[in-house]
């Protein structure tokens, strides 16, 4: 891939590239987990809404309302944690992109090679 660049620049490029791929993968996983928790929370909320419309004398199989409230609270806690992870990974992504830009500025030959790869 990178043939004529000096070894240290090529190694730095590959390290940054690995960090970028790893961070992107983790960020996508967290975003998917956030979507799943939001769906789970919405389902619990809608179930609670339906249960609240029932009269108090209506018997249910088990304490569904309590279970749904607990699930909603657990989803809120998980979403808060996931949001923190997402923000952390987004900061890491910006750092990796900054490192990549810095490396390209320091090595015009690498910048030309990267541009040649993206154009073809």
Tell me the total number of β-strands. 0
Q: What structural category arises from helix and sheet content?
A: mainly alpha
SSE ordering: HHH
Specify the oligomeric state.
Answer: single chain
The domain count comes to 1
Beta-strand level of the residues, as a percent range? under 5%
Model regions low in confidence, pLDDT < 50 over at least 5 residues: none
The main sheet comes to:
none
Q: What overall geometry do the principal axes of the alpha carbons give?
A: rod-shaped
How many angstroms separate the termini?
A: 14 Å
Give the count of helical stretches.
Answer: 3
Round the mean pLDDT to the nearest integer and report it: 86
Radius of gyration: 24 Å
In percent, how helical is the residue content?
over 70%
Please explain how this structure is put together.
By secondary structure, the chain is an all-alpha fold. The chain has one domain (11-53, 61-119). The chain contains three helices and no strands. Helix 2 (64-106) packs across helix 3. The radius of gyration is 24 Å and the shape is rod-shaped.
